[in-house]
Amino acid sequence: MITCVVHYTIDPAQIPAFERFAHEWMRLVAAHGGIHHGYFLPAEGASDRAEALFSFDSLAAYEQYRTRFGVDPEFIAADRIRDESGCVLRYERTFMRPLLPPAA
Predict the structure, then answer these.
(1) Side-chain half-sphere of 15: how many Cα atoms within 13 Å?
(2) Domain architecture of the chain: domains with CATH
């Protein structure tokens, strides 16, 4: 399993747009074989930081999902929310492998 952690710097004035963007990506990840663990939005402290975590069975499965970027109309529409609202100022992806608790 590979987990993608996306670190966002967001515009705090555009949180409703960011939430629309996030809901679309949670739906798309799930529809294309991934597991979305959610978006984590500011509650206290820095108001311009958000995180997202989602997993695929392998890096190859993630790469298959990525082939839809810039091609699939639903992916393009989801990115349009970000681009037109300016809700995301910048982001970076980190790929991690989870260390889970042992089975009971």
Answers:
(1) 12
(2) 2-96 (3.30.70.100)
The pLDDT tens digits along the chain (104 residues) read 999 999 999 999 999 999 999 999 999 999 999 999 999 998 887 799 999 999 999 999 999 999 998 899 999 999 999 999 999 999 999 999 988 899 87
pTM: 0.88
Instruction: Give the closest residue to 12 by CA, choosing from 86, 84, 64.
Output: 86
The first and second tokens of residue 43, run together, are 């509650």
Distance CA 52, CA 31 (A): 17
